[in-house]
Amino acid sequence: MAKSVLTVDDSRTMREMVAFTLRQAGYDVFEAEHGQAAIAVLKTKPADVIITDLNMPVMDGVALIRALRADPKHRSVPIVMLTTESDANKKAEGKSAGATGWLVKPFDPERLIDVVKRISP
Amino acid sequence: MNFDHLRATYFEESAELLESAYEQLAALAEGRADAETVHALFRAIHSVKGGGGAFGFDRLVALAHVMETLLDLLRDGALEFNAGLITLLLRGTDLLADMLSAERAGEVLPEGEEAELAAALAQAAAVSAGTAHAPVAVGQVAAETVSGWLIRFRPHPAMFRNANEPLLLVRELRRLGAVSAVADLSGLPALSQLEPEDAYVAWSFTLEGPVPRAKVEEVFEFVIDDCDLAIEPIAADDAASDVDADVSIEGPQVAVAAAVPPGAMSRSEAPVVQSVRVDVGKVDRLVNLVGELVINQAMLVQLGSQLPPDLCPGLIGGLETLSQHLRELQEGVMAIRTQPVRSVFARMPRLVRELSAQLGKEVRLVITGEATEIDKTVVEQLADPLIHLLRNALDHGIEPPDVREAAGKPRQGTVHLSAEQRSSRIVIEISDDGRGIDRSRVLTRARERGLIAPDAVLSDAETDELIFLPSFSTAATVSAVSGRGVGMDVVRRNINALGGRIAVESRFGSGSRFLLSLPLTLAVMDGLVVTVGAEALILPISAIVESLRPPAADIHALPGRGAVLSIRGGYVPLLPLHERLGIPGAVNDPARAIVVIVETDHVGRLGLVVDDLVGQQQVVVKSLETNYGPIDGIGGATILGNGRVALIMDIPGLAAGASATSPAPQAAPQSAAALH
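The joint structure predicted for all components is written out below.
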């Protein structure tokens, strides 16, 4: 069965780019537009890998990572954060919250596939 | 989904994001901002930049980046908002919008103010930051190729907490070449003392093959801060020789089942906004399909009515229920296409603010009804006419503060912009309390230009109506704001193209009021089915004023100019449709036919002569232009219940043709009534 990836981003463009890229690589991708929506959708469908933006309304990426790491169900799910060069501090923050890996936007599609492959169980 | 689709999504979303950026900036300018405003603004610019980078829009990314840097400082409170910064950010947002539309159209935007603006933004940011951000140097990794690598790796507990798995690292190393590993278990405590979340095991990996160092480092990219790592090259002759024995790797499974109360999860109970993004094309297909159903239903009703009612008693009731549900379905589908006029209205406060500053006037803009919904296509095409009307109101309508004061008005002028739904139409009103239309000047100008006869006597409403004629401009000095004469006629044409009407009411000295009436949707309309000869034609209900069978005495033939109908003291020119369309076998004598009086923008009222009225019906507009070509006077076609194709009349087009053959339009007394 195809591995499932949840992409969390308030930018529809970004979500679709992630989804487009990973679907071509054979992943089953589903989406959420912010942290809270991600938590809600994870209740109904588990993800093998989560890719999240940091800067989002309602619940940002760092809060999402913390919340997931605090939940036994999601403690070991690999989480990749999408950062930008201006988010240097955010990256450290995300990492200390429990992010598994990171990727700098704009990402190279091959690199995204590569990173997801690398960290997914 | 393909790349073009992604691009389309990006452009669409970016337009929305910039729209919201304008709103946030307006809120900041007007002091309505809260903590979330700056964050939302930052996110909007950030998202536009993020997507832009993916498509290689480098200039856009560069500009968005300096804006973002500035916003970041504002967000952190390192910098305070002021009018200058808001103007800079507004200009930046404008330029981003221009860049996006250029990219969308596949054009290259001229350099223009870009560099200067970026410099100004960067300087504003540097003022507080002390120094501007230096570009991050990209590290050059020397291509170092050897026969293999010895990797010593000791994870810290933090690595496991981030869901990084040593086993996966080994898997990755194996992709690069043959791997042998030795586990160092010396740190492992007795079972009773073992902390499940701690890290006790270290490894030495030998990776064989001429792998670049960067590739090896990449494997450890995410764990480099959470482990002790040494990567040493192995000389060609002693590869794998310093590892004594292979130990099969059973990845130390990190215990993750520790019970943590999921307290952080309770917040997720808040409602999540449910919405689905759908391609407009899909909605249009749905609209079309519903249209076909409407036609089908009309057909069934017609067939049903031919059967004796006692033959199938349930049929009539069933058909009625079907009609009712179909109408609801249609409304439901149409509602998908609608969107609030807010997205257009939201641009107006800024326009008014900037323009009033430029013109040295004090103007307050009051907006109401921005939640009113209208077809997406109409919303998109509404911006230009509205901007034009607002510019006119500020430039020509509202007087300078001193003049206002002298006239006993408040120094600050008021412009109202409102939208409301009235049955199947949306009415948008733009009114100002300025000087109103100076009719004597309008008349003078119209005579100068030969638009009206020198001795013509026009009512006030007719005079106001003159401003919609092509090439009419009365601004004493042509200003940069409203331009020269390209004006109300274009506005009217744009509104007409949307199936709408525009009218003006004005009182000299106390202001003007423009009313735009627009159809809710363009795909379905209420039509009156009429017959001419053997043909059935559709007249748009929205244009019809009345229909009558006129007494012969009221019809007056004019030599060489057709005939007019005298009605309630005025005259309405008659246009026999069979003549216009060349339909044989129609009723020739207007007194034996039916006259449908329609309202037109150019020539006032017009009496269309038809044979008979069949009935009112919702018709699905099928474009002729896409399959055939534009025909003057015909707006499209539809399929009737009996399966026949009927042409839909385009009243403005008919009127234009009529005025070409019978030139007496402006002076016709009835034209005044067309405005109200």
